[in-house]
Specification:
The protein has 256 residues and is of the alpha/beta class. Helices cover 54% and strands 17% of the residues. The protein has 2 domains: 68 residues, no CATH class; 178 residues, Ribonuclease H-like superfamily/Ribonuclease H (Nucleotidyltransferase, domain 5). InterPro entries: RNase_H-like, RNaseH-like_sf, RNaseH_domain, RNaseH_sf.
Amino acid sequence: MRGDDNDDLENAHPEETIERSLEAAVARWRAAISDVFARYRLSLFPLKGPARSRLAVADAIRARWVSADRPRMEGAADSTERVAFFDDGSRGNPGPGGSGSVVVELGGLERRPTVVWGAATSLSQRTTTNNIAEFVGLHIVLQHAHHKKWQSLHIVGDSAMILGVMADRRTPRSRKLRWWYEKARLLADKCNIASWTHHYRQFNKTADKLANIAMDTKRGIVYDPQEGPNHALMQVVQDRITGDITRWLEGRDGED
């Protein structure tokens, strides 16, 4: 069909053009509201007292608003391979800290990495320990994966202890860590985690840098590539992720 024929059809049925415009506007509003609640969630960590109930309320409202923001085909399976990295930071241990989380998609025969999401989470409580900050970083990335309905995620971190208890389903002895473990374990089961991999810190640079940014700025920042090339965290993430994901691929290929 020629271009002018398309124009004629649109002129003959202006209601369809209006409907598409309205659908696009609603989708933008849903995405904006989802982003607001995502940033609010980050501001609540570490969860203490009333912050837990506020988190539950925020998640309920967010789920209601964004339930239809991404059209899905019935029965369609998501076969995209995704790898998530997380890390902690605590200046003083205990002391004010931060967490970093990032998700990478691998596409094509070359498995070229594409960063699809990241977060720097500020943890201002002076009682924040390294282990709590690690669990927060893991919780944040699992919560986002569950929200996106991502399945079979690969999880990578540099805390052998936390990766060990998660992979082996061993409840931590510490009462403070037990609460975080149970939350993370529940989300991990919902996301059907495919693997838990330990990296040394030199191969977890992206999440580590995000944790340090959170501690330096004392605020939570969410990275979404759809926000454009000028996002504050874009260069930070892109400069470091290649080495991290290459190490993961080498390790996995070595096991095959």
